[in-house]
Amino acid sequence: MITRFLLVADPQPKGQTSTHRGAFGDLGGEERGFIDRSFRERIILVGVDNQSDKNQLIEAQMAELQQLVATAGADVVSSVIQKKTIPDSATYIGRGKAIEIFALAEELDVDTVVFNEELTPAQQFNLEKIFKRSAIDRTAVILDIFAQNASTPEGKSQVELAQLQYLLPRLRGRGGTLSQQAGGIGTRGPGETKLEIDRRRLVRRIHKLQKQLKGISSTRTNQSKRRRKSVNQSVAIVGYTNAGKSTLLNYLIGSTGDAFVANRLFATLDPLTRKMQLAGGEKIYLSDTVGFVRNLPHHLVEAFKTTLDVVIDADLLVHVVDGSKNAPDKDLSAVRSVLRDIGAKDIPELIVFNKMDQVDPSTYLLDYPNSVCVSAKTGEGIEKMMAAISDLLRSQLDIYELEIPLSRGDLIAQVHREAQVLIEDVHEENLVMRVRLDTFAYTRLKKYLRAEKVT
């Protein structure tokens, strides 16, 4: 179902414990959540076409929003597109259009109105007064889906943090249920005090979650450092949600259950890393990551920063694109936008057009000549993709010659752990080794260099 994001401070009946819906966990009362799963909500979708270039595919955006709502567990009964160059500051779509949608919602017995664009807290509040029902935006729907799919403590903490950051500016009372405000000392009513208490609870909970996630980030950093001490390079699978990333990972590691696979949006939230061996014998770390969508909320990206660290630390990004879509380049651009936001735009990228078992995506190779086409379901094209991955990873490592005394067995073993050994040859009392070194191994072994950057 769709999350109810309107928070109100209502007086509690006598004898009942106060559990304001903005309260969370041990710092905010009872953890209630926001999803009503007792029935499937009926939804009206609302989009605004400002007739700019980026909104030429407003129908495609609305179709994706409908898919998001379906994934959240609700039913779309109607869709409205308003042509408006400049959004209304009070209601986003204008009061007249809002009244029309209210009449439609009454006629269709609608529970919630969902907007394609992000609403300000004031717009959401004004719309809910007109609609007499919940009005939420695309961000709220995405948060709802994330809350349903989060399974690990880390994932749940990240989702809760994003929810609280979204909710904090939306805390407000409902008219007469709060004491009336007035200016001057001594005029603050108990209703406002209730909101202030809830606001402080949310802020404390946000700080606690940020501290927890900072600790997780530190652990991930240490794990990344340990991986850097070996020669194993890391590859992150990125892409638009439901492009087939988890299916590809399962195929590559020869498993059908390691990465959760489902034909729905955001089926994977938590990163999954596995070690695998390339055809040339090199071992790599391969990670599946959370999928992206257009207009991914900035605070959601920030909340999932610890999860996205596996992308930032990668040596290569395998960018999976759903080749069966009509306009996959739009998905590709949306993913690259997020990669820029998290500081991963300069990491080498291999574009992989997936689902070639459903359609021939080779026409995209003209626009993306260094890309490959595969089917993660049947395995077609996988061998060519793995060869491309090997070539791109090797191109990042320079070749050197090391000369190490044969008596230093410990050092020779270290080279085998930290470098890709290409050739070994005994020369008098020394072992000459031609190896590929990353910057970390080069720093540790440079005193044994015999030749710089062998070609």
Summarize the structure.
By secondary structure, the protein is α/β, with parallel strands linked by helices.
Provide tags for this entry.
single chain, 455 residues, alpha/beta, Rossmann fold, 3 domains, 13 helices, 14 strands, elongated, disordered N terminus
Q: Explain this structure to me?
A:
The protein is an alpha/beta fold and 455 residues long. It has three domains: 25-201, GTPase HflX, N-terminal domain (Rossmann fold); 230-394, P-loop containing nucleotide triphosphate hydrolases (Rossmann fold), CATH 3.40.50.300; 398-451. The chain has 13 helices and 14 strands. The strands form three sheets. Strands 6-7-5-8-9-10 form a six-stranded mixed β-sheet, sandwiched between helices. Strands 2-1-3-4 form a four-stranded parallel β-sheet, sandwiched between helices. The longest helix is centred in the middle third of the chain and has 39 residues, at 190-228. The chain is elongated and about 90 Å long.
